[in-house]
Amino acid sequence: MQQVVSNIDELRQVLPVQVQKCLAFFPGVDRSVGGYEGLMAAQERLPNNDVRDKFAAVYSVLGTIWEGTIARSRPQSPPERLPAG
Fold first, then answer.
1. What are the angstrom distances between the C-alpha of 48 and each of 11, 17, 52, 54, 56?
2. Between the CA atoms of 51, 55, 57 and 58, what dihedral angle is there, to the nearest 10 degrees?
3. What is the DSSP string of 4-66?
4. Residue 84 in 3-state DSSP?
5. Cβ atoms within 10 A of the Cβ of 80, count?
6. Stretch 4-26: mean pLDDT, rounded?
7. C-alpha 68: how far from its chain's center?
8. Which residues have a Cβ under 8 Å from the Cβ of 15 and sit 6 or more positions away?
9. For 35, left (φ over 0), alpha (ψ -120 to 50), or beta?
10. CB neighbours (10 Å) of residue 5?
11. What are the CB-based long-range contacts (under 8 Å, 24+) for 73-80?
12. Contact of 68 with 11, CB cutoff 8 Å
């Protein structure tokens, strides 16, 4: 099912705010470090289930906003038609 996003401008305004909320869980992590080393540095900032759950909730909101903004900014392709049977 496809949903219509009517408040795209509002979503675009709150997207950077929500990204910052997610990044706040990782103070001091050098984001230029990738791979296993970068992942381990980030995971150290989520030391227990309570903090992980809080991050997951904030990240879930970010994902919803991201999907809303990306879905609206992509050109809509027509639905595929099934061959006549």
1. 31, 24, 6, 10, 12
2. 140
3. ----HHHHHHHHHHHHHHHHTTSTT--TT--HHHHHHHHHTT--SHHHHHHHHHHHHHHHHHH
4. coil
5. 5
6. 86
7. 10
8. 62, 65, 66, 69
9. left
10. 15
11. 73/8
12. yes
Residue ranges of domains in the chain:
8-73
pTM greater than the 0.85 cutoff: no
Which one, of 2, 12, 19, lies nearest residue 61 by Cα?
A: 19
Task: Convert the pLDDT of each residue in 54-65 to its tens digit.
Answer: 999 999 999 998
**47 alpha carbon, distance to own chain's centre:** 21
